[in-house]
Every structure is written in structure tokens, then in C-alpha cells.
Structure of NADH dehydrogenase (Quinone):
Amino acid sequence: MVADIRPLAAVLVSAVAIVLIVASHRRPNLREGWSVLAALAKFGLVASMLPGIMNGTVYEWSLYEATGIRFLEGLDFALRADPLGIFFALLASFLWIFTSFYAAGYMRGLDEHAQTRFFAAFAASLSSAVGIAFAANLVTIFVFYELLSLVTYPLVAHNEDDEARIAGRKYITYTFFGGGVFLLAGTVMVYWLTSLVQEPTLAFEAGGITALAEAAQAEPVYAQAAFFLLILGFGVKAALMPLHSWLADAMVAPTPVSGLLHAVAVVKSGAFGISRVILEVYGPGLIYDLPLDVPGIGEVGLNIPVALVAAFTLTAASIIAMRKDHLKRRLAYSTTAQLSYIVLGLSLLHPYAIVGALFHIPAHAFAKLTLFFCAGAIHVETHTDYISEMAGIGKRMPLTLSAFTIGAAGMAGLPPIAGFVSKFYMLIGTGDVGGSYWLFAGALLLSAVLNIGYFWPVVYTAFFESEDRHDAKPFLEFPRGGLVESYGDDAEAVADGGESETDRSEATDAADSVTAEETEPDAEDEDGDDDYEYAVDQYPSDADVPAGTGEQVSSIDHHGDHDDHLTGGPPAGRWPRRSPFAESTWLMLAPIAIIATGAVVLGIVPDHAVFLDLAVRIVEGVFGMPFDELEGVPFDQLLTEVSN
């Protein structure tokens, strides 16, 4: 282990950028330039440690070593770049680069209000996410975990309407108060348990904390309770059911927030925390050696309840996603399901399943970020949020919908996208264990079919249907999740949540009655405060509001010479045909194309992708032997040897 300031510098670089972003609030180009420079600097710092970590070096910065200050005996605020930490930090910092460009295009495209606050909070969020990645112990990860909830609240509530405020309060309640309390309680119990056998410690150790394993033999009930408290604490952000509902409501946030924070940093921090607990706090050996005694069933490993919850979540969330006509809400429930793949793979404890679970973190991140970027581009350019109004939109936005198809294939686990590789490893691990674990293999396969069920309608509607005659639900057709009638206008059509087409038309007519004068800000109100609405978009960004009827609105033009409308559906009944390079701005199209390409590259050459190599190294550290030697060891024997 080498003392190094780079883990701290990687955390602080975006914190410094906050000051520069706020100071440049009157110069948008400079403000967004600071965001891009901070992203590049953060990635550079993280990447500079990668060669050493691949050679077995671990970099650590400790407040106690630097200043002599620590909170309690054995309790230090420390940052450490190890294989698991660099895995998450490398992913988050790399994707922030492209999200910075995309966010600039998105926020400018909608002429959103409070953009300085948005970019400052975004930088703070990435600082917290990297802090979680490099946390060397449970107390450090708790600090950054809670800080992440606080700094992302302004992003969730960005629109400042009632819906956004309600979503923000729900987000804080679940993640800061709910998840934080569980995590703190579990941390205190681990600190107490380790103090029973030696100097108390909360530092992560590959394969599990040795002192905790010793204490668990004397106090198994408390060790079991601490395990489930930690899983619950991180499980809130990982959106495990029934702790998931905050995620769908948080989709009211602007799409860059939904993309990076709710597909990478926030939700992945929960999955990452669970990986720390399973691999480096308890370890597979202790989890296997500390079973629950369930009346009528017998002894059950601590991992089985976690695996059952994850299997239920990925199945139920996939079914719910099929009901959603609003694109971002469908993506939100897809995220809930996909995160449970990670938790399920980790909880199976098999080396192959763990590699698959870890590799699914970047596989899901690239594919889901592509999907959210595409949803945001569709909203900015056409103000269309409902799938049932996207018939033929592929000719208006061919590159965006082609990238969406790639991301959807990755979510379904189809080759050659990265999602296939991660799910294949998980299936191999599940099959190798055999026995009752086939139940989990069945859940993985069923969820893959359901993924196709809720993504195929989007692709089919966009590319294979015409605006005047289309099937709103080509895979399954029923009242929940789209228009009931495939063809014809005679019947009353019901949209997501039981809302009728008439209701949506009336809501749009009311919104369209707003004149251009009403959207112009007043110079100042009577008390001299310029607290008028800065956003000139008629509809709040990506809010789950009624879509329109596709009629052209000419009274307000937010996009200059753009000929698109402000309501959902094609203008004047038809989408204009655009070339792939003219459908949107390069600030949005370039990140979409690059991230979608990354999802393909990860799937085609996984052996040359650093993330798979890191996942293998993490597993080797946990089990204490080369990965190729793990193949020939029976599962029960392997866990017994690790436990001993």
C-alpha cells in the first residue's frame, strides 16, 4: 500500500470546479468549459492510478496519517484506490466527460432556467460518487453516501414545480433518511463487533474483515443483523423492492440527471456499496458460514434472502415497465430491474456470477446512458415523451433511434452488446452451483424475455410504423401501458395510468392557449426581485405531463429555425425526414454515438476491456487464488476453504 494524494485529488477536482462554475454564471461557455475540464482532470487522475493498480499497488490517503486527526480509535477518514474502487471511479469519471457535453446541449436546447446551479450540483455529485468509490472504510463511504443524496436533491427538484418538489422530498426521505439510517446502524454494529476481538476497525479487506469473521462466531445474531442493515442501507439507492419507488418519480429531473446520476452514479453507488459489503466487509466465506435458521426450512445462507429479493425485483420491475407508455418511466423501471441483476450476481457468491455482476455495472451504464440520452434528444427536438406517439419517428431521428436500439439490445442481453457478456457470466455461475439456484437462472432468462417485451415496442413503433396507421402496443396490447386500439379513432383510447386520449387532448388545448406574451418574463416584480420563470420551454423538462395531439403550435418558438412542435406526436400528422447529422446538435449527437459505440465495444472485445480484467482481479483478491484455478474447485469446497 502506497501513500498517495491522488485519491483525494480525484475527489476534490470537481469540488474546485463548483467554485469556478458559480463564478462564471454570466458566461455560459466558460461555465460549461469548467465542467468539461473538471471531468477530463478527474478522469486523468483516476486513469493515472490504473497501471499501478493492475500491477498490485494500492494507493491510500489518510486524514490520520496526514494530520494526526481521527474520529475514534480505529476510525479514520481515509480514501483508497484499490481494484474495486478504481472500477467504479473509472466508469463514473469517464462517462462524466460525455455527459458534460450532452448536458450543455440539452439545457441550451430547452433554454432551461438555473443552469449554473445545475452544473454546480452536477459537479458536486461526481465528487461524492468518486468519494464513495475510493472510500477505504464504512464510515468514509457513509459520509459520501449521504453527501451524494444532499447534492443531487437540487437536480431531482430542478423544475421547481409541485411534481419536482414532491419527487425531491421523496428522494431525500428514501435515500438520505431511510438508507442513511440503515447504513449508519449497520456500521455501528460492525464497529462494535470488531471491538470484541481486537482494536475496532471498519476498513475494507478483500475477502472480508478478519476481525468481523472472528466476532461473528461469538455473536452470530448481531453479525446477521448488521449484514442485513448494511444491505438495506445500500439497497435503497440500488432500488431493491419495496424501496424502489423514489427512482421512477425522480425521472422528473432533466435527462442528463436521469442518465448519469440515475443510471451510473446514484443507483450504482447502491450496487457498489452492496459489492463492498459482500466482498470486502463480510466476504463470501463468512456469508456462507453464518446461515439463518429458518423454521420449517432449516439453515439458509445469508445470501439467499438477498438473492430472492433481487430475483423478485428484476422480474416485477420488468413487468411494470411493460405498462409504462411514458418513455422515461419505462426506462426507470428497467433500471430497477437491471440493478437487481448486479445484486443477484453478487449474492450468488460464485466467482463467475460475481464477475458477471461486476461487469454488468459498466455494461448497464453504457447501454442505459445511451437510452436516456436518446430519450432526452427526442424530448428536446420533438417534445414527444410517450411511446404511443412515436410512430415513424425513426425517420425524423434515425441516429438517435438506431442508438436506442443498440442500448435496448444491451439491456435484453443480446449479442454482441456488453449486456450479453455480463449476463452470460451470471448464468454460467448459477448453472455451476446447480440445485435450487436454477430458480435464479430462470429469473434471469425470464427477465431477458421481458426486456425484449418492453423495448421492442419502442423500436417497432419508431421504425416499422407510419404516423397515420400504427399499432400502439405490438408486443402486448392491453389497457395498461399504451393505447388500447391498434387502429382507428372511434374508440376511447387509454394511456398510461388510465388517462384517456380525450383527457390528454383537453390538457394540451389548455396548455396551447398560453400566448407568447405570457411566456415572456416581466422586467421585475413589485418588490424588485427578478424571480420570474427563466425556462422558456412550455412543458417542464421531461416531466410526466400529458402529451399533445401532434398539432403544430406556432405561437412560441424555442428552437429558432426548428420546424418541430411543442406537443407530442408528429407535426401536422407527419415527421419530417432528417439525415442522421441534422436531427439535433452535435453536443447531443456525439455523446449518443460514442456511448452507444462503447456498449458495442465492451460486448465484442470484453477481454481487451479494462473493466472485465478488473472484475477478474477483484474476484482473485476475494478468493485468494488465480481465476483459472477457481474453475476446477467445487462451489461448496471453495466457500469452505475461503471461510477457513
In short: Residues 255-289 form the longest helix (35 residues). The CA atoms of residues 3 and 163 lie 47 Å apart.
